[in-house]
């Protein structure tokens, strides 16, 4: 199987905090950019939440991004602007120093974080823009630190048929966000399923090759879309073009609105697409995946 990286285009919104170093967020996760409005501080709110803004009649929680990722506070705590994001079924405002510009690049231009970044890092990748290092923000990790996704701690109520069919699924979960990866793994463990994991498409391909022809040969792939080097679409197309992996069931799991990605996911060859993070919905998708691979004898 070829490990050549497939390149898709990607748009990044560049912004700065107090240090002035450039950071970025996937433009598809941004709904708008506004000057920082007056905020209402709520008692007993999370310390990383600056307050609540009213945006066209709706309440919007505003995250002090500097504090959330361990940076120094902004020089003007009431200045700067808000990057309003739409991620994982919720909207939130990120308070930043300033927005710089939008740049267009290839997913292959985004490299994994430097070795040794550790679990405390809030970046999923790095790239170069005009010779300057840019860090790509792990927005899912920021949000999880403030409002963790609710994951059932007790096994989900399943029918005997559903329990039986899930034993047919041998699953590989692929996500460059450690938080998002763990959310999926916990859901699977609550279902009594152990799975393999990978932090990139390259690593996933290695796992698929290593397990091919063994009792643990993968038949279901649950992959993030917004990954560095090779995104979920390119990864899916690579699988579909490889004879040994053409029949794998591929579920693309995205922090973006899945309806927006459905057509592109289908064109890439994915079987299904799901917005993060809903433990019950992921469970339903995995049951459907397991039924499909059982019917196809994969």
UniProtKB/TrEMBL annotation:
Keyword Phosphoprotein: yes
Keywords: Phosphoprotein
Pfam families in the cross-refs: CheW, Response_reg
Tree of life domain: Bacteria
Keyword hit for Phosphoprotein: yes
SMART domains assigned: CheW, REC
Positions of the Response regulatory domain: 170-291
Modified residues (4-aspartylphosphate): 224
CheW-like domain residues: 9-148
GO biological process, one term: chemotaxis
InterPro entries: Chemotax_regulator_CheV (IPR024181), CheW-like_dom_sf (IPR036061), CheW-lke_dom (IPR002545), CheY-like_superfamily (IPR011006), Sig_transdc_resp-reg_receiver (IPR001789)
Cross-referenced PANTHER family: CHEMOTAXIS PROTEIN CHEV
Protein name (Swiss-Prot/TrEMBL): Two-component system, chemotaxis family, response regulator CheV
Protein species of origin: Pseudomonas abietaniphila
């Amino acid at each position: 199987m070829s490990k050549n990286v497939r390149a898709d285009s990607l748009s990044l919104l560049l912004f700065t905090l107090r240090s002035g170093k450039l950071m970025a967020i996937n433009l598809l996760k941004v709904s708008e950019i506004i000057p920082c409005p007056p905020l209402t501080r709520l008692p007993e709110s999370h310390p990383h939440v600056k307050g609540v803004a009213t945006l066209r009649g709706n309440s919007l929680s505003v995250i002090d991004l500097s504090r959330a990722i361990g940076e120094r506070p902004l020089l003007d705590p009431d200045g700067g602007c808000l990057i309003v994001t739409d991620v994982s079924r919720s909207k939130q405002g990120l308070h930043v120093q300033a927005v710089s510009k939008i740049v267009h690049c290839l997913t292959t231009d985004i490299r994994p974080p430097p070795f040794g970044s550790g679990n405390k890092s809030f970046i999923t990748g790095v790239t170069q823009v005009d010779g300057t290092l840019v860090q790509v923000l792990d927005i899912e990790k920021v949000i999880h630190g403030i409002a963790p996704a609710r994951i059932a701690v007790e096994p989900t109520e399943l029918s005997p048929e559903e329990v039986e069919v899930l034993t047919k699924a041998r699953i590989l979960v692929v996500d460059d966000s450690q938080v998002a990866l763990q959310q999926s793994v916990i859901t699977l463990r609550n279902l009594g399923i152990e799975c393999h994991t990978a932090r990139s498409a390259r690593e996933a391909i290695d796992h698929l090759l290593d397990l091919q022809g063994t009792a643990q040969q993968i038949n279901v792939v649950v992959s993030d879309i917004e990954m560095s080097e090779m995104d979920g679409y390119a990864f899916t197309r690579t699988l579909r073009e490889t004879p040994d992996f053409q029949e794998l069931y591929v579920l693309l799991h995205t922090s973006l609105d899945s309806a927006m990605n459905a057509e592109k996911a289908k064109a890439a060859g994915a079987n299904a697409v799901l917005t993060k993070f809903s433990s019950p919905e992921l469970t339903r998708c995995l049951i459907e995946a397991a039924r499909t691979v059982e019917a196809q004898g994969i």
